[in-house]
Amino acid sequence: MIKIAQKLRPFSHVPGTHVLIPKSSLSAQIFPTRIILIELTTNKKMEVQWDLHGSFEDFTIVQDLERLEVRVFARAQEGYFRFRLTAKKEGLSLFIERSPKEIAFTCNKKKKVLKEKEEWTIGLPTILFAQSKERLSLGSHKKQDWDLVKRREDMREVLPIWLRLSVPRIKTPKVGTASLLERGRIEKNEAEKYFQNLFQIGFKGILVPRLMDDQHQGIVKEEPLPKDANPLVLLSEGGHLIRSLFFRVEEHKLFLLPTLPKEFAFGRFVNLSSDWGEFDLEWSKKILRKAVFRAKKTGRIELVLQKQIQNFRVRKSHRDKGKTFSRETPLLVEEDHTYILDRFQK
């Protein structure tokens, strides 16, 4: 009933762009004739090369967050080629979708010749993460050309992709660029600037996390990093902070849009998961307009709404006339029932 149609597929035409392989701890720096793979938790590297030649036209790297893969394509001297990279338990899958000829790949002195529709799994150990169903849209529909996104620094474009790339929370020191995460809960009047700073120093390429700001921008103190420092904390804790702007749970209390920044006046957030169930939210002009709650268990919950909202309607279906509740009234919800909340009034 509340849906997000926008597809998240950031892309770049710049050779050497760093990109995360979705749902894994692998990053790839991609060039027209080679890839440098890095396992972010161990910093182990591996290089893959292939025998195509330039000059390359329309070179493109696409991080497809719908299909959870990275696609690379261009027109080489030999003709058009396209392949995709996907994280699997066995390692990194390289699948040739289109090719003008057989392509010879080399990795760690091993050679593999691939034809169109053939696959090679490169045995670089990686951590695989469960992919969250939560999706955020903040009303921006510009092309996701990452070099322009970085220049604009509009968090309405960045945060939905950042959230989509987030991983489960991990225990690791918050050092280097991640020291900004120690600030905890963010006030709504400083949220955009906070995430802009973290975006500037904490990432390279298409949101590949880094603990050392190698551009030396002076936002955080530069100091040696402990061996157990993990850059993925920028995705885990960063994703948690993004989520906390729009949804928070404390026992029986469910906070809807608790810290909504003025810059994010329009938006949707779907499949927000909690022990109580799943929420879909829609808001405009900085006010909650509609919510759908799919209950996982029976009990009383207290909705903590924006200060402007005094009452709202609850229905069990679109045909149901529903009942009006004041903001202080707890809701009795039943397991496996869906509730539609609307007519939020000041």
Describe it:
The protein is mainly beta and about 350 residues long. It folds into 3 domains: about 10-120, no CATH class; about 135-240, no CATH class; about 245-345, Sandwich (Immunoglobulin-like). The chain has 4 helices and 25 strands. The strands form 5 sheets. A 7-stranded antiparallel β-sheet has the order 13-18-19-20-25-22-23. A 6-stranded antiparallel β-sheet has the order 1-6-7-8-9-12, with no helix packed on it. Strands 2-3-4-5-10-11 form a 6-stranded antiparallel β-sheet, with no helix packed on it. α2 packs across α4. The mean pLDDT is about 95.
What is the rounded Rg?
Answer: 23 Å
Shape: elongated
Q: Give the biggest sheet.
A: 7 strands, antiparallel
Number of helices: 4
Number of strands: 25
Biggest β-sheet: strands ordered side by side in the sheet: 13-18-19-20-25-22-23
Portion in beta strands: 35-45%
H/E element sequence:
EEEEEEEEEEEEEHHHEEHEEEEEEEEEE
The percentage helix is 10-25%
Which structural class should the secondary elements be placed in?
mainly beta
Please, how many domains? 3
- Euclidean distance between termini CA atoms: 24 Å
In terms of per-residue confidence, which ranges show pLDDT below 50 for 5 or more consecutive residues? none
Mean of residue pLDDT values = 94
